[in-house]
């Protein structure tokens, strides 16, 4: 049966990147529709995600699934014949979901003020972001991936932020290799995967894009 | 199952702890309940949830599971022989998780605003809160439960907030049931389930509990996953709450301003 899989997407959106990476890991054929954000959302997006009106949205045979980590779990459940993204053991599954949730709460929430504020507010947000990344650095430890030997949901949750490490270094005047050396090595390891390298923009393109966004968003 | 050790680190008035208590009761799991004092957290809590230091924490044969919705999913997977909570169809399951996530994003934040604010801020917070409930009412429709005919995952995620409604209504001077009748009917239906009625905190106790610990900032921070106040507003709100409580106890009358 031919599946119709569409992703309402944006090339620089980390939550959208997660969905694309997951689909590529599973070898699922899909169509990506780039949204013109934030002010020109398509009528398809507004219809498929009327509650939050946000990307990403996965449309599978006409039915929408929203919220990036929920979409990744859905992808794992439906296309369950290859590349499992979650462990089978219930306790390990809960552990993976906990860290993916941590990334959503701590990394993405403090990343935004780093981008959109300045001075002391930005410095405080940067400090919090770095301390959360250090906790992830410790959690990763000497494992190749967060789940152990296999690339999984926690790696997918975090890897889009790796493209922003150069931006963080420039904004915070710091070295990510000094702050979170294990994460840097992990990021490079993940970039060896085709699903990741063909989805994420490189650090410098991302930095240019962040500067453009910052011009529009920073309150002067 | 023989030889299972299940312990729940919980706080009586915590909506997130209540979710887990309901799920365990639905599955008929025997467990030991350890009530935490958030102003004096046990070493066990600090060890088992070293990242967030929050309740609830489920300990299953010594291994911790954290975050209320993740715990509920875990309980549903492990004790899968009875009262399934999540739908079996992947699409329906994704929808249920979406709505539980909506609840987490839209309901607790408004609570913080209602406790601290007055005047225009309070009215705005009430409006947003009611709007969130109305969206949920729209999703519920004419179904007896969010999952359809059977009590399920989204119902478990939402019903604990019902025990806090008396506190909001008292402080916000409004009647939630009058504005959201479908929601009120659904809540009453859920309360008829033993798992719910035995797990939900007494609304009066929730109100007093909240006022009593008003000056304890860490308790409040850990009670809610999201809070929207800066610390000075927060301290002011807690002093007001405590005074309110003292007046209430002495005059046996709820006073909110």
UniProtKB/TrEMBL annotation, chain A:
**Pfam family of this protein, just one?**
GST_N
Where does it primarily localize?
A: cytoplasm
| Designated name of the protein | Glutathione S-transferase
Protein's organism: Coffea arabica (Arabian coffee)
Please tell me whether the keyword Transferase is annotated for this protein. yes
The GST C-terminal domain covers which part of the protein? Answer: 89-217
Enzyme superclass (EC): transferase
Q: Which UniProt keywords apply?
A: Cytoplasm, Transferase
The job of this chain, per UniProt, is described as: Is involved in the conjugation of reduced glutathione to a wide number of exogenous and endogenous hydrophobic electrophiles.
The entry assigns this protein to a family as follows: Belongs to the GST superfamily.
Under the heading PROSITE patterns, the entry gives: GST_CTER, GST_NTER
Compartments where found: Cytoplasm, Cytosol
Which reactions fall under this protein's catalytic activity?
RX + glutathione = an S-substituted glutathione + a halide anion + H(+)
Decide whether keyword Transcription regulation is in the record.
Answer: no
Identify the InterPro entries for this entry. Answer: Glutathione-S-Trfase_C-like (IPR010987), Glutathione-S-Trfase_C_sf (IPR036282), Glutathione_S-Trfase (IPR040079), Glutathione_S-Trfase_N (IPR004045), GST_C_Tau (IPR045074), Omega/Tau-like (IPR045073), Thioredoxin-like_sf (IPR036249)
Q: Which SUPFAM superfamilies match?
A: GST C-terminal domain-like, Thioredoxin-like
From TrEMBL, chain B:
Which residue range or ranges hold the GST C-terminal domain?
89-209
Q: Give the GST N-terminal domain ranges.
A: 4-83
Species assigned in the record: Coffea arabica
Taxonomic superkingdom: Eukaryota
- What are the protein's GO molecular function terms? glutathione transferase activity
EC number(s) for this protein? 2.5.1.18
Protein name per the record: glutathione transferase
Entry's transmembrane regions? none
* Record keywords, A-Z: Transferase
Supply one GO BP term: glutathione metabolic process
Q: Which InterPro entries match?
A: Glutathione-S-Trfase_C-like, Glutathione-S-Trfase_C_sf, Glutathione_S-Trfase, Glutathione_S-Trfase_N, GST_C_Tau, Omega/Tau-like, Thioredoxin-like_sf
Q: Which PANTHER family match?
A: GLUTATHIONE S-TRANSFERASE U26 (PTHR11260:SF773), GLUTATHIONE S-TRANSFERASE, GST, SUPERFAMILY, GST DOMAIN CONTAINING (PTHR11260)
Q: Which reaction does it catalyse?
A: RX + glutathione = an S-substituted glutathione + a halide anion + H(+)
Q: Which GO terms describe its cellular component?
A: cytosol
